[in-house]
């Protein structure tokens, strides 16, 4: 059987890019990422909606955008 490198070289360019992306993903998940203090630069960004919507209503809207079923049913 050909080596992994030879098999990758035999792939079309778009699939070689996918292999490269996957290798980058594997490397990235092994590297510890420093965790700094969280920044809340967004804090208060929706203050103008306070009179129109409750925080629960906004949470439900976000779940809709994500495609989750808010009611929990399937």
Detailed description of the structure:
Helices cover 49% and strands 0% of the residues. The mean pLDDT is 83.
Structural classification: mainly alpha
Overall pLDDT level: 83
Oligomeric composition of the shown chains: single chain
Tell me the β content: under 5%
**Overall helicity:** 40-55%
What about the largest sheet?
none
Count of discrete domains: 1
End-to-end gap = 47 Å
Work out the radius of gyration: 22 Å
The parts where pLDDT drops under 50 for at least 5 residues are: none
Continuous helix count: 3
Shape: elongated
What string, H for helix and E for strand, traces the elements in order?
HHH
Number of strand segments? 0
Produce a short descriptive summary.
The protein contains 3 helices and no strands. It has 74 residues and is mainly alpha-helical. It is elongated, with a radius of gyration of 22 Å.
Q: What is the element layout, followed by pairings?
A:
Elements: H1 4-9, H2 13-30, H3 55-66
Main attributes of the structure:
74 residues; 3 helices; 49% helix; elongated; mainly alpha; single chain
């Amino acid at each position: 059987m050909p080596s992994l490198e030879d098999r990758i070289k035999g792939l079309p360019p778009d699939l070689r890019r996918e292999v490269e992306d996957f290798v980058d993903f594997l490397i990235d998940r092994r590297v510890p990422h420093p965790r700094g203090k969280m920044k809340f630069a967004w804090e208060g960004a929706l203050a103008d909606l306070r009179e129109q919507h409750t925080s629960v209503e906004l949470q439900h809207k976000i779940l809709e955008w994500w495609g989750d079923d808010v009611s929990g049913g399937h």
